[in-house]
Amino acid sequence: MSVAPIAAAQDAATFDPVAVVAQQQRIRSDLDTGAGRYGGLPADARREVSARQDALFKLLEGRSYEDLSAAERSQVSETLAWIEAAPQRSGEERMVCERVKAMGSNRVERVCKTVAQRQAERDSARNRANKSGVDRALEQRNVCANASCGGAR
Predict the structure, then answer these.
(1) How far apart are CA 94 and CA 90, in angstroms?
(2) pTM of the full predicted structure?
């Protein structure tokens, strides 16, 4: 029971609405100028960040931490976490297209995948290559040398 007031006091000490608004204004500046971590976001992600910031500004306007209800504090925390993760998310969701020639054909196709999909395919191929390399090594070591398997005559 005595831990709850201490945790609430720590949250109030670490959460300063004025500092949060100042930080979000810096992020908004990056969005508008195309600079910093948030400058490279795609247009739809920029709009989403801006909309979430607008809601956050409206919620925090002229209020202190103590003025916020528990639900509002939770909402602020979730919104800040979402905004913080936006550049990482957009990097993984970014589409990368390449022209690929189909095997046995001169036809070139345009193949588009997200960065996350390309990374997963690379990891999968690497795992298959490592596994098949181990299998080949085992096959080479297990050379049949006795009459029962047909190796000795």
Answers:
(1) 6
(2) 0.53
Within 10 angstroms of residue 80's Cβ, the number of other Cβ atoms is 17
Radius of gyration of the chain (CA): 28
CB 79 within 8 A of CB 55: yes
Instruction: Tell me the C-alpha distance between 96 and 140, whole Å.
Output: 40
Is the alpha carbon torsion for 137, 138, 144, 146 positive or negative? positive
**Which residue, 114, 122, 121, is CA-closest to 92?**
114
pLDDT digits (tens, 9 = 90+) for 17-68: 888 889 999 999 988 888 888 887 888 888 999 999 999 999 988 888 888 8
Angle at the Cα of 100 from the Cα atoms of 96 and 101, rounded to 5 degrees: 175
